[in-house]
Design a protein that fits this description.
This protein is an alpha+beta fold. The protein contains five helices and 13 strands. It is globular.
Length: 237
């Protein structure tokens, strides 16, 4: 799968990039080993579509202006905290002859009998792993078959995965990826519902103290004004 993206050299920097975003573009930068950082801009809609498909573990052919395409990975994407709109992109240029480190997503497939037949709840402890490989061996995701989870005692560990050739896993191989948690018994559910919510007396005391101190401070600040008013009345007499 080859993904392509076009970008333009960007001269606009600082606060002026707001106008760039309003025009449907996202400010970006590309950098890498022995590569001089270059400010770019990419069209927002095509990039958003590509990012959804590629994530941060798929090689992309990035064509800047009229230059020949270079291989890059999406290194980081920033988004507006209020609107969720993408606001900046970092691309990392890759040398195909040098190994790279990357994070690969885990894709959960199949259906667990412990969930379907026993009513358990899937508990995911890991959703991506760190790997090292040549860029040509990089995969977008690694599949995990949940059908092996037949009981609540079954677990899938990182060492159980079939890792594609050429890839070395850097994460802990003994780490548990996913389990199935048994449903609560009627007694456990009843006990949980009947457990009273304890109000922390210490926290209430602190709040009351702060409130009292605030009222005293406000009263102290108002006192001089009241004294001035009383003095004026006495002088009129």
């Amino acid at each position: 799968m080859t993904l392509n993206l076009e970008a333009q050299t960007r001269k606009i920097i600082g606060k002026k990039v707001r106008d760039l975003r309003k025009g449907g573009f996202i400010p970006a930068v590309v950098y890498g080993k022995d590569v001089k950082p270059q400010n770019l801009s990419v069209q927002a809609l095509p990039f958003a579509k590509l990012y959804k498909e590629a994530g941060e573990s798929t090689l992309i052919d990035l064509k800047v202006d009229s230059a020949a395409p270079v291989k890059v990975l999406i290194q980081e994407v920033q988004a507006d905290p209020l609107t969720g709109a993408l606001s900046h992109v970092d691309f990392r240029q890759i040398k195909m002859t040098e190994k790279i480190k990357a994070e690969v997503l885990l894709k959960f497939i199949g259906e667990s009998p412990a969930i379907k037949e026993l009513g358990g709840t899937l508990v995911k402890s890991i959703d991506k792993i760190e790997i090292e490989c040549l860029p040509g061996d990089l995969v977008h995701e690694i599949e995990i078959d949940l059908s092996v989870l037949k009981t609540f005692e079954n677990r899938i560990h990182l060492k159980d995965l079939k890792i594609p050739a050429g890839i070395r896993v850097l994460s802990d191989m003994n780490a548990t990826i996913v389990t199935v948690e048994a449903p609560l018994t009627e007694e456990e559910l009843k006990a949980e519902l009947e457990t009273p919510v304890e109000e922390k007396v210490e926290e209430v005391g602190v709040v009351e103290k702060e409130k009292k101190e605030g009222e005293e401070e406000a009263a102290g600040a108002a006192a001089p004004e009241e004294k001035k008013e009383e003095k004026k009345k006495e002088e009129k007499k």
